[in-house]
């Protein structure tokens, strides 16, 4: 129904001239119908809250106990998804005032920040890229460069995966997986998964190549998203909680995260490529694929798109301008960047929203008066992620203002004797396991990152030394189809099964955890200045 049409009634209007059949009678109410697992999960949150309020006492203000109770309620609903996650995310708006943790105005302010505006503007830019098929043209052009003649399967796999990772750097990894998977499967459509020419030897290399491509796109999307602050919601959640918990410290800017995230993602990406080549690409792959896959197919796909239109060029120009502004806002202490012209008042969110506004001003060259974007396209904005990000802000602020953060810090005194490398490894593994089996990576980061900041204080290490491994670990969910949305996108293609994901995902999880644990105390210590205390 077109609700935006002023002529459309808000409620359906029955035509009195046509007889209408009476609605079927509702089923009789039964108390047994209420005894469902879903309803138990709904009650679990308030029950945990009540038990904590009645049975737990702290040597501190009452608000610290209330904050723990409210946190248990929200976390229980997040983990069980008793109610939709976006609704759980706005629960602090009524729970905090009712339990005396914060005023209504105070908690509402937590839901809007520079990081939130960064996410809003970035998603509008992504929607513009989708609208004009810029991602598809980019993918086909890059893949065409890697195809080789005759076809080189490892090199072609590298091109497809690298394209996916590159696109994911600048848009959310879920959107990237959804957009890139049809591009990848379109390339595979020319391959006979079950050849009819009786060539049994050609079947296994072709099937394995299809598995490698689908797994590569599935995993390259979240890996590429690790590179930039806007590539995945987890990175934004980390930056938001860091800024909220330590407002006096230097915030995590786009440029700062890129200096750490890009080398990290590059190493994990290369590990992915090597694992896929070893597991799925045999020496006979090139001969088996040569008869079905060549550059001519990719050129035909590119020709279907036609020449680049004015709107595509404008979107690419806006896209490139955004990246340049993000990268140059704050460069080094000696070269402050253009942000110094505004005395530090402009942030990455400023750039994001300014560029998003341009999309509604610049023409698309198709029809007179038509712009690159219109508001109807923005109805696809992922409000669930935006609200989850706001909830993370609210919980982090509540832990600080209620005194719960100090109590948790004292309770973790035993961590002072544990070596940092062991803590970082365990944190990364726990975060990865929670994302794999219990909840989404965004929710896992929102749950764990505030707690890790307190653990770090107790263990006498820089908070980012644990917060970053915890956030990255929550993105290493590669083993199950339900681990992350990109996993589901790859699994539903029919080219891979659970055993493929378990085998490849376990190896990638182990290698990724090791890379994070080793890179954080080396490169991370330099980028985030974690050896000299808070800066």
TrEMBL record:
Keywords per UniProt: Membrane, Transmembrane, Transmembrane helix
Statement: the UniProt record of this protein carries the keyword Transcription regulation: no
GO molecular function, one term: malate transmembrane transporter activity
Pfam family, one: Na_sulph_symp
Transmembrane segments: 40-58, 70-95, 115-134, 155-181, 257-281, 302-328, 340-361, 381-399, 419-438, 506-529
Membrane topology: Multi-pass membrane protein
Main subcellular location: membrane
Keyword Transmembrane helix set for record: yes
Compositional bias segments (type: Pro residues): 20-29
CDD domains (UniProt xref): SLC13_permease (cd01115)
Gene Ontology annotations for the cellular component aspect, listed alphabetically: plasma membrane
Region listing for Disordered, in residue ranges: 1-29
InterPro entries named among the record's database cross-references: SLC13A/DASS
Name of the featured protein: Tonoplast dicarboxylate transporter-like protein
Organism whose genome encodes this protein: Gossypium arboreum
